[in-house]
């Protein structure tokens, strides 16, 4: 299948590692022009070199961007438009908020999670939509969490703001569908990333058991019997963001190996 991504301008947020990096790698394999971003210049340089080496695609660019800072977001997209004249695909991604239940978080945690995990996605969409509407083409993929379908105990901030993201994405998708702009949300289940490793370690510490026991139990709950690979998740992101997806919009999908029982 031709995904129609060759030469498309793709911006992947928070892409120096984890799911963002995996997505950037897959877009580079499709010969897209890929702009990666994160808060760390050094991490971005290493990721850029790795992507270019593994894919043979030299059209990979980097830009510093802290998703919680409006100025950084505006600067990033000004750079993209000035350099390329357009933007075709936006992959919204950011690290998960502080873990913990209701009593473990205070007002500052709530504000920080709102800024980083919801308002940042709103700001990036605001930055790209005028250009996507002008060219009558655009794809926005909001990476979220499986908590959009089934809340996760001990992650009250994620449960709250990921749900808000789905409401935002659904509403936006309906507003811009007539401009050939598709907006979808996709949530990872238990994918082998640093975030999942962090949550596994927190569970092990809380239960005072070896982390291997937590991992074994977790994998036994997944019907396919293992954690997902970031590349597996990224391939679905790339399809949703491609020209091959011309009709699916406003959806909230979960990639979880069959873990969730919710309909």
Describe the model.
The chain is built from 8 helices and 7 strands; from the N terminus they run βαβαβαβαβαβαααβ. The longest helix has 29 residues. The protein folds into 2 domains: 207 residues, 3-Layer(aba) Sandwich (Rossmann fold), CATH 3.40.50; 35 residues, no CATH class. Helices cover 49% and strands 14% of the residues.
Tags for this entry?
single chain, 263 residues, alpha/beta
In short:
The protein is of the alpha/beta class. It has helices spanning 18-29, 41-55, 70-84, 107-135, 156-176, 194-207, 211-221, 230-240; strands at 9-12, 33-38, 60-64, 89-92, 138-143, 181-188, 252-255.
As laid out across the biggest beta sheet, the strand order is 3-2-1-4-5-6-7
Task: Write down the Rg.
Answer: 18 Å
Number of domains: 2
Give me the number of helical elements: 8
Would you identify the regions where 5 or more consecutive residues have pLDDT less than 50? none
CATH architecture term of the largest domain: 3-Layer(aba) Sandwich
Average the pLDDT over all residues and give the rounded result: 95
Please identify the top-level CATH class of the largest domain.
Alpha Beta
Would you tell me the structural class of the helices and strands? alpha/beta
Shape annotation: globular
Order of helices and strands: EHEHEHEHEHEHHHE
């Amino acid at each position: 299948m031709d995904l129609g991504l060759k030469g498309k301008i793709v911006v992947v947020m928070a892409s120096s590692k984890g799911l963002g990096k995996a997505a950037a790698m897959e877009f580079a394999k499709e010969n897209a022009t890929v702009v990666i971003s994160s808060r760390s210049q050094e991490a971005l340089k290493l990721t850029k070199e790795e992507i270019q080496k593994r894919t043979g695609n030299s059209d990979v660019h980097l830009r510093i961007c802290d998703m919680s800072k409006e100025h950084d977001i505006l600067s990033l997209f000004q750079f993209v438009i000035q350099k390329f004249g357009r933007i075709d695909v936006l992959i919204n991604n950011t690290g998960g908020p502080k873990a913990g239940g209701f009593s473990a978080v205070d007002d500052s945690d709530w504000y920080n999670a709102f800024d980083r995990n919801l308002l940042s996605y709103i700001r990036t969409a605001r930055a790209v939509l005028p250009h996507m509407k002008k060219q009558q083409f655009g794809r926005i993929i909001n990476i979220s969490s499986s908590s959009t379908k089934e809340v996760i105990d001990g992650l009250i901030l994620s449960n709250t703001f990921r749900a808000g993201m789905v409401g935002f994405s659904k509403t936006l998708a309906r507003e811009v569908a007539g401009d050939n702009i598709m907006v979808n949300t996709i949530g990872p289940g238990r994918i082998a990333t640093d975030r999942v490793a962090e949550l596994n370690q927190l569970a092990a510490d809380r239960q005072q058991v070896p982390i291997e026991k937590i991992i074994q139990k977790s994998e036994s709950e997944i019907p396919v019997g293992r954690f997902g690979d970031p590349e597996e998740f990224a391939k679905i992101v790339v399809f949703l963001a491609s020209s091959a997806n011309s009709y699916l919009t406003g959806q909230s999908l979960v990639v979880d190996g069959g873990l969730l029982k919710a309909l």
